[in-house]
Amino acid sequence: MTRYKTIPPRLARRILLIFLRDDLSEEVLGDLDEKFFSTLEKKSVLLARIGYWYQVLNYLRPFALRKHKWFLTNYTFMVRHTLLLAYRSNRKYKSSFFINLVGLSTGLACALLIYLWTTDELSYDKYHENGSRLYQVMANHHKPEGISTSNDTPGLLAEALEAEIAGVELTASTAGGTPQQFTLAAGERRLKTAGQFGSKDFFKVFTYPVIEGNPNLEDKNAIAIAESLAMRLFGTTEGILGKAIDWEIMGLRHQCFVSAIFKDVPENSSMHFDFVLSFNYFREDLVSYPGWGNNYATTYVVLEEGADADVFSKQIVDFIKGKQQDSNIKLFLQTYTDRYLFANFENGVSAGGRISYVRLFSIIAVFIVAIACINFMNLSTARASRRLKEVGIKKAIGAMRRELTFQYLGESILLSFLSLFVALALVVLLLPQFNLITGKNLSFYPEWTVLTTVTSIALLTGIVSGSYPALYLSSFSPAAVLKGRMNTAISELWARKGLVVFQFMLSIILIVTVGVVYRQIEFVQTKNLGYDRDNIIYIEREGKVMENAETFISEVKNLPGITMAAPTSFQVAGQGYTYGISWEGNEKYNIQFHELEAGYDATEMLGIQVVSGRSFSRDFPTDSAGILFNETAIQMMGLSDPIGKKVQHYSGPRQIVGVIKDFQFESLYQPIKPICVLFNPKQTRFVMMKLENGKEKEAIAALQTFYPSFNPGYSLGYKFMDDDYQALYESEQRVAVLSRYFAGLAIIISCLGLFGLAAFTAERRQKEIGIRKILGSGEWRIIYLLSGDFTRMVIVAIVFALPVSYYLMNEWLNNFSEHISLNWWYFGSAALVALAVAWLTVGLQTIRAARVNPVQCLKTE
User: Fold this and answer.
1) Where are the beta strands (DSSP E) in 58-167?
2) Could you read off the pLDDT of 232-278 as tens digits, one per residue?
3) Full-model pTM
4) 392-429 pLDDT per residue, tens
5) Burial of 400 from C-beta contacts in 10 A (0-12 / 13-18 / 19+)
6) Which of 295, 418, 557, 735 is the most buried (most CB within 10 A)?
7) How open is the CA angle 170-174-179, to the nearest 5 degrees?
8) How far apart are CA 204 and CA 411, in angstroms?
9) Half-sphere exposure for 470 (CA within 13 Å, toward CB)
């Protein structure tokens, strides 16, 4: 007697159900072969589990084949039958299959590329072990014109918070939020790279694994360097602890000794640097006024487990005011992992940032996949009439509706996964170009999370795109189908038309978005900002250029192609600020001025207009204590006749010699700020040079030849000011480029669906076309008849799309302090483009149908 016959049927059924649930019981374990347990002892858990289920299958196979043969054969037959019918259907309707395959694969490829991009964006700064408890202390500056938000805080704040406020586990300070470019020298090797000053617990607060040594940032002479920097400076990472490195920035020099080597900062970090210096040295030796009134540091805190960040924020709101009574700064916390995506603030409240583009591209991905799914739904329901007999016969011989639904959903899912394979190939081919457009270094590896995601996307796409056709086809009555009494339902026509309207509405919204974004970026790039940024380059002062700036400038002016040169600290979106200015009638430091240092000819070279008074001049020796203000500053100060009046600067008294016209040194997201320009050529960071138009290459070549001889040991590193300005809108430019691609793909996919529907409509109405031609209708009348319905659908899509696109674009443009006007022609041109594309797509089919011989039309069955 075979073994399976001794098993009670209830127990066998229970074991089978347990197998399906992946659940074990003591009763089942007792009946299984003891070899399983010896396997479990000798092999890994994974192998033992595989071996166990293999034994279960062998144990149950005779019983299953004999008692429940339907379970193993019925679904196998259904799957095989579904695959066979899908193959025959796709072979018969090649055009529909091709349209669906191209549309779905293209849509899925776009979705996968956007998934890779958004995943990378969302991963920024998530690698820190303290990420869930790590916060950045932000400062809201309450000013007469509103609230401005900054990450600059007093350098004493971190230590004070740790000592005085409960719930703080660790704190760290850095010198500003952005690493600076230093010149490093080790032996004969000299290079420029990014670094920053960090406090003693920097490497405890942030996760930058130390490979060797101890950072010991309490030591003013310590420097911790990254692996890659060690290789560039010393050619090795071994035996370099204690070696000397000289650094220089803005004429400041110091020698440090390597205390530690840490792993390179990951690419998905919002803060990139190659070395860390002691914050103690920066605060005690470089900052002239390290008190509570000087905001020269960025502060980070790690809260204790269980500490409430909201409660902590309320505790520190007036913390600085408790140290300095006249302070107008209120503090709050921002989650450190949010700083990359939520960097924008309006009137002291978070107003998004890059997260808006993550959401935008996610919505675009959904739009494109939805358009591809709509094509599948429309073409499947349109072709339903060709499968009515198949449905009727299957139902007549006993097929249930759920089995038919399973079949048609299976066909849809099969096509979706076939499209997925094509999409994966497209992603691999297009990823290098996509990286160039996005400025990233994305890679596509078949990791478990990625495979799960793409499989889920394909499965969801298959279910969504096949759900309506499956439910629609399986709902037919077999008697009505076999008697030929099936008429196209009004609901079917409305559903199909509604889907066409919806997909063209999405396409039109994308067209409007492309046009508006392109025009705004063009407006930004060509707008007169109040200063001249064309053909201006700047270099950082170091070495002899710092020591003998006047000599360098006078000799540079004699080089061919260079018309002007001047020392200045002006940098696009890189100005410092101060509260340390008071004047008669206002002895409080309550206005935040953006502060620039400049020498002679700086304002003239930048083309900044003087409204009243004059600029700095060599004819007036007293200008060594001179200061310029812009119009906004004078207005906020309430000075009616400012020329010649004295102001008290934190460095000493200054005399107003001129008022300059407002200029925008930040991005157009920001309003114009109050600016003061000090005559202080020795403290300027850069030397700027104006190049003669058309002789830029000649001027740069001459400068590259001259610079090493004047400043031996230093390499020339120059930047164009216009490049810095363009970098402010790098995200918008990439959005504009990507939007063009995505809008184009959306239109192409929509047109593919429209092309398929037009072909099907022409085929279905062949007899009508033949009769009309026999009765005297011309080709253009036939074309008008066939294309009129599609034209009406596109017009309805335009009516719905234009208000939505106006609202979306108006919201986006409001983020800019200055922007274009939403003229009617942005929307009119989008509507005309949609109509023209629809007419062209439908016209190709309607012209072909209208020119068919009517005899051939009447012969068709």
Assistant:
1) 134-143, 146-150
2) 999 898 889 999 999 988 778 899 999 999 999 998 898 899 999 99
3) 0.76
4) 666 666 666 676 777 777 777 888 888 888 988 898 89
5) exposed
6) 295
7) 140
8) 55
9) 21
